[in-house]
Amino acid sequence: KNNVKAMEKELVTCSLQGREKAVLERHQIFQIPGGKALETKVIVVLGKAGMGKSILVQKICQDWSNGAFPQFEFVFWFDCKQLSLPGKRYSLKDLLLEFFVKPQEGSKEIFEYILQNPAKVLLVFDGFEGLHDHEHFPRCSASQPEEDPCSIKELLSGLIQKKILSGCTLLLTTRPKERVYQYLSKVDKIIEIVGFSPQQRELYITKYFEGLPYCGDSLKLIKECEYLFSHCYCPAICRFVCFLCETVLEMGDKSLPSTLTAVFLKFVQHKVIAMQTAVTAVQNQESLAMLAHIAWYLGEKHQSAMNSDFPSKEVKEFALKYGFFLPFAFPRHLDSGEEEFGSTFSDFVIQNFLSALHLMLAEEIKDKSLTKYLSFPSKKKKPYNWLDLVPRFLAGLLFLQDDPSFCSLSNKDGKQSAKKQKALLKYIRRLKINELCPERLLQLLHCIYETQSNYLLEHVALKLKSDLSFLGVVLTPPDVHVLCSILKMSRKEFFLDLRSSIIDMQGLKDLVGLKNVASFRASLGDTVRLWKSLEQKKDYQLLRAATEKFLLDPFKARTMKDIGDLKELVEMQKMIKCVQDASGCSSYEIPAIRNLRKVEFALGPVCGLQGFLKLVEILPAFPSLQHLDLDALSENDIGDEGAKSLSEVFPTLTSLETLNLSQNKITDVGAEKLATALPSLSSLKTLSLYNNSICDSGAENLAKVLPEMASLRVLDVQYNKITGAGAQQLTDSLQKCPHIKNLVMWNPTIPYGVLEHLQQLDSRISL
């Protein structure tokens, strides 16, 4: 139970099932169906850095102050990176009524009221990843944590495990890759923020420039640089791009940098160099180098905040003056009222960029050791996920060392940087690109794209394997842009597996539209939505390409949504009345429908029958269906009603060869309905009715039709309720069926001696 790897596997399983994009209103965040009133509710908001988790929390607090969320009388909001400064210890009372807010009077009475009414309390811990070493949380050792001081990790552990202030509501925000695995069983709801849609990006940019003289030019300028516009899905980066665009337009330029590295190089240059004198230039370069060292030092420890321990007064003034750091205050001693001041990086991207700048400039980091920071190991070694943009910025800076913007930030000799660039080239040439896992491959593609080196871009395009799987890997708009750019440079044909990648429609359209993407798999719902969009726009050429490339076989239905998506696919076939091609045909059959050969049904007992009845309605639409498998492990429990419904469409399933109805609570009633229609399955070779509730009457009905099922080779009726009489009838029928190779009919209700005797009569009977 304490195995971290097992917890990681559990999280992956939970997070990928049924994960779909949806609009969630703020008032729905605290709604937990089936939640018990007196239990602590734990809600986790996931989102990459810069996605707006903190803004969401602030908005929740603002809404509450304006009368929303009336179920809460108290809302406490904490920034985890400030809480986790070394040496700080808190009791619950200290945390709520000293650290967060100190009432002028009545603290004791307020705290007693909170303890007696925990359901009226909302505790928000923003930036869970900001807690040092948060994957190893100790149990709370204090005998009375409400009153006795303990570490913030112990206090949080007690809250999450519902041992302290039981009945309150906890809202945690963190990054998706951070280790919250050990608390997965305690979490009641997980929400993930996925960023701006293309329309929201345009709206944000338009509002940013609203009222400015170049409002009309700004959106056009940013959209022309597709790579930067794709990065604008992240609100924090969108703000940086807008700032740079504003600067560019003010200076009269008409173009933006082509990479993210160049954007932040320009941003830092504008901050530091603008209006400086020759006297301060060298001092600023030295301060920037020291700040870059601090960024890396903190980042290695998964930190972005520090006490006021800057190397010098000049570096501190530099960091605060140019907005690289923001100050904050916290109590020095919780009972004294004295305040202490700390500082935190103003933005995660700035810390990543400065960390990469440190790796580039630091003389102690030699060229041979540089590559370990690029995070491309083929095996799953622990990467620098916390500073996940550092490899991209580092690769980009190594190829921008001659850029005037870079030269203005550093007075270092360029020889060492040139050596580091050569080390990067040598490393990538030796890299076994086709062995990289999908996450590492995407990181590599981003790094190569940031270099804008034609040699490296062509090298990677040449080395890519033709079968690329991104199954379960979230593909962001920048991921899609980089992938498209490099695939275009290759002469190979590719198969892409995009299932469970949460790719947006524009990204799916871009990848599917590539001429050298020969086939792909993706979420059926997303694919059908893309087709509908293309048909509405009358883009029949791309619609035809998108339908011909799409692979559906085999299809596994795990949720009601999967069944709904399959039904939409069938309806889409009816909707496409005409897709013109060169020969002018007037009708078109979707290949995914024509070529579907295997359907696995695994909805489980709750929705099994309901989902199966809907599936049966559309089964006749698949002319090549050979294998229908109602996964026995899922216990779909379709019962006699499901069996009856299925038997009614048997005459249309002319290609069906394997039918698995194991463990579905089918009785003699269902067996009779099936037996009546089974002879119409002219291609059926294997029929499994394993572990149902079929008795002798059902066995008799099956025995009657066996001679009529000329294609049948294997019948499995073991673990039912058939007795010796039913077994004898099946054996007698088997004598008339030379085409059947195996009859599996061990049942606990058949005496072993009887079964052994029957096997002696016919060796095709399996014990």
TrEMBL record:
<dbReference type="GO" id="GO:0034341">
    <property type="term" value="P:response to type II interferon"/>
</dbReference>
<keyword id="KW-0805">Transcription regulation</keyword>
<dbReference type="InterPro" id="IPR027417">
    <property type="entry name" value="P-loop_NTPase"/>
</dbReference>
<keyword id="KW-0067">ATP-binding</keyword>
<keyword id="KW-0433">Leucine-rich repeat</keyword>
<dbReference type="GO" id="GO:0005525">
    <property type="term" value="F:GTP binding"/>
</dbReference>
<dbReference type="InterPro" id="IPR008095">
    <property type="entry name" value="MHC_II_transact"/>
</dbReference>
<dbReference type="GO" id="GO:0016605">
    <property type="term" value="C:PML body"/>
</dbReference>
<dbReference type="InterPro" id="IPR007111">
    <property type="entry name" value="NACHT_NTPase"/>
</dbReference>
<dbReference type="InterPro" id="IPR025875">
    <property type="entry name" value="Leu-rich_rpt_4"/>
</dbReference>
<keyword id="KW-0010">Activator</keyword>
<dbReference type="GO" id="GO:0045348">
    <property type="term" value="P:positive regulation of MHC class II biosynthetic process"/>
</dbReference>
<dbReference type="InterPro" id="IPR001611">
    <property type="entry name" value="Leu-rich_rpt"/>
</dbReference>
<dbReference type="GO" id="GO:0004674">
    <property type="term" value="F:protein serine/threonine kinase activity"/>
</dbReference>
<keyword id="KW-0597">Phosphoprotein</keyword>
<dbReference type="InterPro" id="IPR032675">
    <property type="entry name" value="LRR_dom_sf"/>
</dbReference>
<keyword id="KW-0804">Transcription</keyword>
<keyword id="KW-0808">Transferase</keyword>
<dbReference type="GO" id="GO:0016746">
    <property type="term" value="F:acyltransferase activity"/>
</dbReference>
<dbReference type="GO" id="GO:0045345">
    <property type="term" value="P:positive regulation of MHC class I biosynthetic process"/>
</dbReference>
<keyword id="KW-0539">Nucleus</keyword>
<keyword id="KW-0342">GTP-binding</keyword>
<keyword id="KW-0012">Acyltransferase</keyword>
<keyword id="KW-0677">Repeat</keyword>
<dbReference type="GO" id="GO:0045892">
    <property type="term" value="P:negative regulation of DNA-templated transcription"/>
</dbReference>
<dbReference type="Pfam" id="PF13516">
    <property type="entry name" value="LRR_6"/>
</dbReference>
<dbReference type="Pfam" id="PF05729">
    <property type="entry name" value="NACHT"/>
</dbReference>
<dbReference type="Pfam" id="PF12799">
    <property type="entry name" value="LRR_4"/>
</dbReference>
<comment type="subunit">
    <text>Interacts with ZXDA and ZXDC. Interacts with PML (isoform PML-2). Interacts with TAF7; interaction inhibits CIITA acetyltransferase activity, thereby repressing transcription.</text>
</comment>
<feature type="domain" description="NACHT">
    <location>
        <begin position="41"/>
        <end position="176"/>
    </location>
</feature>
<protein>
    <recommendedName>
        <fullName>MHC class II transactivator</fullName>
        <ecNumber>2.7.11.1</ecNumber>
    </recommendedName>
</protein>
<dbReference type="Pfam" id="PF17776">
    <property type="entry name" value="NLRC4_HD2"/>
</dbReference>
<dbReference type="GO" id="GO:0045944">
    <property type="term" value="P:positive regulation of transcription by RNA polymerase II"/>
</dbReference>
<keyword id="KW-0418">Kinase</keyword>
<keyword id="KW-0547">Nucleotide-binding</keyword>
<dbReference type="GO" id="GO:0005524">
    <property type="term" value="F:ATP binding"/>
</dbReference>
<dbReference type="InterPro" id="IPR041267">
    <property type="entry name" value="NLRP_HD2"/>
</dbReference>
